[in-house]
Amino acid sequence: MSAQYDQIGDKTENWDVLPVRSGYMEGHTIFKVLGSVKGKSVLDLACGDGLYTRQFKERGATRVVGVDISEEMIRIAQQNEEAQPLGLEYHVSDVASMPSLGSFDLVTAVYLLHYASSPEHMLRMCRSIHAHLKPGGSFVTYAFNPDFSAKGPNSTRYGITMLAFPEAPRDGQAISAELHTKNPFTIHFSYWSRSTHEQALRAAGFHTITWQRPECSPEGLAKYGQAFWQDYIDNPHAVALRCEK
Ligand SMILES: C[S@@+](CC[C@H](N)C(=O)[O-])C[C@H]1O[C@@H](n2cnc3c(N)ncnc32)[C@H](O)[C@@H]1O
């Protein structure tokens, strides 16, 4: 499962324009939960092509480092860096077994924990994240929503649909989703309950774990209207999570 993005590669191009991935919903929620990054060092895990890694630097972060398990995604991230240099540093690694990259004010991970292959793998990821934070630092992540409901809305109009989502998902159950980009592709990951996430985070040393449902920005509401977003707001595929060291 881990290197699936080596095959997906540039099919992810422009996926940030999908309504669900846009700054109106996902970006708005992540930056609201994260707060200002100005003057802070940021380690961006599961950075993919550097979508958020670049934004952290553009918003005034100091040292910004991206890590991804996929060589192909890091190749694309580095290509983006060469095209428009921001001084970003990228590494290929599984978060669970990262070498030490330093000590950061913030660790971010937009879509990581549901790629854990077992609770033990998630725990190793969380321990590694904790070890890369300065005392008092924060981990902000965006993960598959453990409360996503098979009975709730699951509309293609947002740019992502869950495929054959089970009515009562079990921990570790395989989940697939389709991304409706120009060259659509399917991703595969595992279902993990809230308590599995929280157990791993607490065992790694985090406290004050706060879940936050996605919110639409005023610009997104003005552009598409409340009615467009309502189904997604009622049954979002992802949620944000903030944890303190
Ligand atoms: C949905 S993409 C998100 C990329 C980027 N954060 C974004 O929001 O555009 C998930 C990424 O997680 C990476 N990934 C999955 N498991 C990982 C692991 N164990 N360690 C590091 N990266 C991982 C994948 O290679 C992929 O690039």
TrEMBL record:
Gene Ontology biological process terms, A to Z: methylation
Keywords: Methyltransferase, Transferase
InterPro entries: Methyltransf_25 (IPR041698), SAM-dependent_MTases_sf (IPR029063)
Protein name in UniProt: Methyltransferase
Residue ranges of the TM segments: none
Entry's Gene Ontology molecular function annotations: methyltransferase activity
Listed PANTHER family: TRANS-ACONITATE 2-METHYLTRANSFERASE, TRANS-ACONITATE 2-METHYLTRANSFERASE-RELATED
Organism lineage: Bacteria, Pseudomonadati, Myxococcota, Myxococcia, Myxococcales
Top-level division of the source organism's lineage: Bacteria
